[in-house]
Each structure stands twice: as structure tokens, then as C-alpha cells.
């Protein structure tokens, strides 16, 4: 693999996510498996169609200047104060060269080798964050091996492990090329970004490889899905865009076949 690998973006649809996950060992068959499914809207009547219990929510949204300003401010606060309740989460750090901190940045490692990035792989990072931090059944294989190797690594070292995995790259490329629409050129950049929301120790955790840490949104009050929707609404308001997509990881059923 090349030093700065560039992957085709994954489509934000359940078919792509299920194909990717099943290829790497996720049980997607009823009655014990889990599958990704569309969330058709934010109204309670539409949320009621999502099968429970929801294990995770993935969001695709446009990165705007307003969002970037908010992210950078929060990341500065994270560097200053840290985040409670996320120390044992398996978190992958995805950082592009333009995001590298200055050598004078306090408490930040600036070794270029530790900031390896996989361009356009935020969909894969979101899926990894989801499957690594939920109790869904995954068969032994490259994914469970990766997660096992990650446990004693830093977020940046975990990203390095990802860039070294030929099997993950192969599955990613095959999935990206068999989506519903024509695959984009390999050199194409995208301003759309994936994040994942999971439950951890009763709290709602946002996992975004471009952040300095997982983000703890506090104790879940109503449910993972409902509390995530509240955060999603704030992101939509901030980006001033309706160009977003939500996918839930929830129990598989015969209706999915």
C-alpha cells in the first residue's frame, strides 16, 4: 500500500454498510444478527419505524465553515480539559495533512508518521467505530483481529493499523465500486463526512476520526436514537443544510430479506 492511501468513498446507504460489515464477519441474519437500515426522518412517527434496540446511528452531512469553526473550538477544549468516560473506547484518529497541529501545540504529537490518513475513508472509520464499540455478533476474522490489536494502541497508532490492512482495503474498494451509483474517481475529494453515535456506560458518545477525542454528549435520557436525533438537529441547524443521511444499526428481521 502506498504511504498516503486514497480510497473510494463509500455510499451512505444500508446496502453498502451491510455488504461491508457482512464481508468482515458481522452477523446480519435474524434472529440474533444486526443490520443497518435507513432512518427516514426525524419526526417521532418516522422514528417509530426503526427497530429497537438501536445499537448505533451513523450520520452523513456536509462539512461547512460553521461546522468546522465549532469542531475546532470543541477540540481546543478537549485538549485543554480532556473528556471523561471515553478512555476505554476503541477510537481511530483520522487526520489529513492540513489538520496537523503546529510543532508548538501543547500536548499534541506531531510525528508525521503517526498522522497517516486514508483519504475518503471516513465511511470506513464510522463503521469501524460502530462495530468496535457495540456488542453486536462478529465472527472471528480480520475485523476482530484488528480490534484486538487496537486495545493497547493510541488512536493514531490504530489508524496506522488500518492503513496496513490489505483485507480492509480490499473490502472497502469492492463495496465502494458496487454501490447504487457510479463510483467517483479515486482522486476525487468529498466535503461530506460520516460520524457515528454509540452508547457507552449509559452516555451518548460521538465518534469522529477528525476530532481530538470521542465526544461525550452526556447521559442518555430518552434512548440512543432519540438522544442522537437531538444532536443531529443541532448539526443540521449549524450547517444550514438538509443534505444529510441517517442510518441505524438495529436487529435484523425476516422483513429485511
From TrEMBL:
<keyword id="KW-0378">Hydrolase</keyword>
<dbReference type="InterPro" id="IPR036959">
    <property type="entry name" value="Peptidase_C12_UCH_sf"/>
</dbReference>
<dbReference type="GO" id="GO:0004843">
    <property type="term" value="F:cysteine-type deubiquitinase activity"/>
</dbReference>
<feature type="site" description="Transition state stabilizer">
    <location>
        <position position="94"/>
    </location>
</feature>
<dbReference type="InterPro" id="IPR001578">
    <property type="entry name" value="Peptidase_C12_UCH"/>
</dbReference>
<dbReference type="GO" id="GO:0005737">
    <property type="term" value="C:cytoplasm"/>
</dbReference>
<keyword id="KW-0833">Ubl conjugation pathway</keyword>
<dbReference type="Pfam" id="PF01088">
    <property type="entry name" value="Peptidase_C12"/>
</dbReference>
<dbReference type="GO" id="GO:0006511">
    <property type="term" value="P:ubiquitin-dependent protein catabolic process"/>
</dbReference>
<feature type="site" description="Important for enzyme activity">
    <location>
        <position position="208"/>
    </location>
</feature>
<feature type="active site" description="Proton donor">
    <location>
        <position position="193"/>
    </location>
</feature>
<dbReference type="GO" id="GO:0016579">
    <property type="term" value="P:protein deubiquitination"/>
</dbReference>
<protein>
    <recommendedName>
        <fullName>ubiquitinyl hydrolase 1</fullName>
        <ecNumber>3.4.19.12</ecNumber>
    </recommendedName>
</protein>
<comment type="similarity">
    <text>Belongs to the peptidase C12 family.</text>
</comment>
<feature type="active site" description="Nucleophile">
    <location>
        <position position="122"/>
    </location>
</feature>
<dbReference type="InterPro" id="IPR038765">
    <property type="entry name" value="Papain-like_cys_pep_sf"/>
</dbReference>
<feature type="domain" description="UCH catalytic">
    <location>
        <begin position="6"/>
        <end position="251"/>
    </location>
</feature>
<keyword id="KW-0645">Protease</keyword>
<keyword id="KW-0788">Thiol protease</keyword>
